Amino acid sequence: MKTTIYYFSGTGNSLAVAAALARELQDPVEIVPLAARMKQRRIEVRADVLGFVCPTHFLTIPGIVKSFVGKLSLDSAPYIFSVVTCNSQPGRGLFVMDRLFRRKGQSMKLGCAVDMPGNSLIGMDFTNPPEVRSERLNNSRETIRRIARAVRERQASAPEGTDSPGVRLRSLLMRSFVRHIYRPAGAFRTGESCSRCGTCARVCPVGNIAPGESGPEWGDKCLYCLACLHWCPRHAIEMKRDTVGRLRYHHPDITADQIAAQSGVR
Ligand SMILES: Cc1cc2nc3c(=O)[nH]c(=O)nc-3n(C[C@H](O)[C@H](O)[C@H](O)COP(=O)(O)O)c2cc1C
């Protein structure tokens, strides 16, 4: 029985959930960073159980996850499950995953959301205060156990979240606003406390940051995962003025090296 879990993660929540699921599933599980495979045109998968874990971005799944699923070539009909981590609003991401698999003639049997500490600092978003973070991390353990049980028993259920016209519209507006008006990718800057350590460049899952002699330089492939901003050991990175004085976050059990390992860029 072969189980493979593909993950994408900016601040470690989704990686921590993937790792915890793997432990709960007991069978040998291969955990694979999907960002490292993006250069391949076609990704052949041979697994009996196939899982995906990624964050919710703007009420849906990140574009890189959609592209990855589009490249998959499945030679059988594995038991497929997806998990989105979120800050209380999973939106339509699991419905989007479900549709992507149906287009491939496959069926996603289970789609679950895990409430985790939030990491968005875009616009009006704040990360959660420490007591909310602890509560969410504690509660997530039971949610992960429940999902693992469902996978072990090969359960089938409708995706969690909602795909209502209102959510679709909000998701579209949020993505358009960020991409065309707010444009965080052009708005990162470092303060004087930047030590040129290069952590931001290492943790970027798509290699979008050049460490540069006078400080990091961002390219135009930003996925808005905010790994650079949250993993900076000196909190020296700001995005517009919006992030000044706001709490940073990364999952307490995940390291910057683990996030860096997912890119396969360096
Ligand atoms: C750009 C961006 C958009 C986000 N949008 C949502 C959202 O629509 N709903 C939600 O519940 N959480 C949202 N979040 C929070 C993340 O989904 C959540 O913190 C997730 O667990 C982060 O996972 P990671 O640490 O694996 O990157 C967003 C985060 C970012 C960076």
Question: Would you write up a description of this structure?
Answer:
The protein is an alpha/beta fold. The protein is 33% helix and 18% strand. The chain is built from eight helices and eleven strands. It has a five-stranded parallel β-sheet with strand order 2-1-4-6-7, with helices on both faces. It has a two-stranded parallel ribbon with strand order 3-5. The chain has a two-stranded antiparallel ribbon with strand order 8-11. It is globular. The mean pLDDT is 94. Residues 9-14, 55-59, 85-91, 116, 118-120, 122, 224-226 line the site of flavin mononucleotide.
Summarize, please.
The protein is of the alpha/beta class.
How far is the first residue's CA from the last residue's CA? 32 Å
Extended strand count: 11
Please give the order of strands in the largest beta sheet. 2-1-4-6-7
Determine the number of helices (DSSP H or I, runs of at least 4 residues).
Answer: 8
Instruction: List unreliable stretches of 5+ residues.
Output: none
The rough form would be described as globular
Measured on Cα atoms, how large is the radius of gyration? 18 Å
Fill in the keyword field for this structure.
266 residues, binds flavin mononucleotide, five-stranded parallel beta sheet, two-stranded parallel sheet, single chain, globular, alpha/beta, 33% helix
